[in-house]
Specification:
The protein is an alpha/beta fold. It is built from twelve helices and twelve strands.
Length: 324
């Protein structure tokens, strides 16, 4: 893979073959990639100006430029100015461009959009606000005036990628796997078949929460090993799951018969769903959770959505109470 295709490689972003090589943030600091004389001469120079990240304009530009052959148009020079939300910031940009540029801007503010268009047109610079036509048509269609809030799409993107990261982490840390427990926002502990994985995946997919889940086995040595693994995890991040013994026994029996593929039980498998064994396991868990001061959630006969929300609420409540 070409390292320039990776957004964070060498400080130079590549978006579908379009290089983003200048950035003027709201601090006014400019970063520019050095260009050769030949490159300056050949390339069509395009500027993107945005009140957010510029991703909206970049995506549209990608789609449009895909209709032209690279042999016909060299569009490798695309300068992007981000978070431009006032006249002063725009006027600084205007000092660096002339009528040899095409300026594409995605600006929500009507006042700023008119100001940008007027100043650019006065210098003979071809320009377009890519949001304006769509907003105008949509307003006529909906008979509703837009809110004109910049950065909304970026907030949606951030939420999406947060969920993607959470899902990846949760899958990697399912059923006791994974080694980065300190990165978990919530760690679920519970006996086998107490709905740890469904709860974890529901929270990751719907709330973007990184969840690790670990099965509990009623054994003192294993308990000590688990405490060692959890040494770096804040107590408020750990939730213990419990279920009524008779319900858990029934779930385990059905699961065992399904896995065995026959009614005949495998050697030792009866203990897995023996009600007496399960009661001992649950007693061990409750005592263990109480000793460590971990919060407990009972999952008996409850929907995954309901239990997941309680897990999330308890974790958030505990954290707020722990703040100084």
């Amino acid at each position: 893979m070409n390292p320039l295709a990776i957004p964070w490689a060498n400080g130079f972003h590549k978006c579908g073959g379009i290089g983003v090589n200048m950035r003027l943030r709201n601090t006014g600091r400019v970063e520019r990639r050095r260009r050769s004389a030949g490159e300056e001469h050949r390339a069509k120079k395009i500027v993107i100006i945005s009140d957010g990240t510029g991703k909206t304009a970049k995506r549209l530009l990608d789609a449009v430029l895909a209709q032209y052959s690279p042999n016909e148009v060299d569009y490798s020079l695309v300068d992007t100015y981000q978070e431009i939300r006032d006249h002063k910031s725009f006027d600084r940009i205007l000092q660096h461009i002339d009528k040899s540029y095409l300026v594409i801007f995605s600006i929500i503010s009507e006042e700023l959009s008119k100001y940008f268009h007027k100043r650019l047109s006065k210098k003979g610079i071809l320009n377009i606000n890519v949001l304006e036509p769509m907003i105008s048509v949509m307003s006529k269609f909906l008979h509703v005036h837009p809110h004109f809030r910049p950065g909304i799409l970026q907030a949606i993107d951030d939420s999406y990628y947060k969920k993607v990261d959470a899902i990846g982490y949760t899958v990697e840390h399912d059923d006791g796997r994974g080694t980065h427990l300190k990165d978990a926002e919530i760690v679920l502990l519970g006996l086998s078949r107490t709905c740890k994985t469904p709860i974890a995946m529901y929270l990751a997919c719907n709330f973007g929460v990184k969840i690790a889940n670990i099965p509990i086995i009623a054994d003192e040595v294993i308990k000590d090993n688990l405490l060692t693994r959890l040494a770096d995890v804040p107590r408020e991040n750990i939730i213990g799951l419990l279920m009524e013994a008779d319900i858990l026994a029934k779930i385990r029996e059905e699961r065992s018969l399904y896995l065995a593929g026959a009614v005949q039980a495998q050697e030792g498998i009866q203990d897995y769903y023996d009600i007496r064994v399960i009661r001992k396991e649950l007693s061990f868990c409750r005592r263990f959770f109480d000793e460590q001061g971990w919060q407990i959630v009972d999952v008996t006969r409850r929907a995954i959505e309901e239990v997941s929300l309680e897990v999330l609420t308890k974790a958030e409540s505990y954290k707020s109470q722990s703040l100084p």
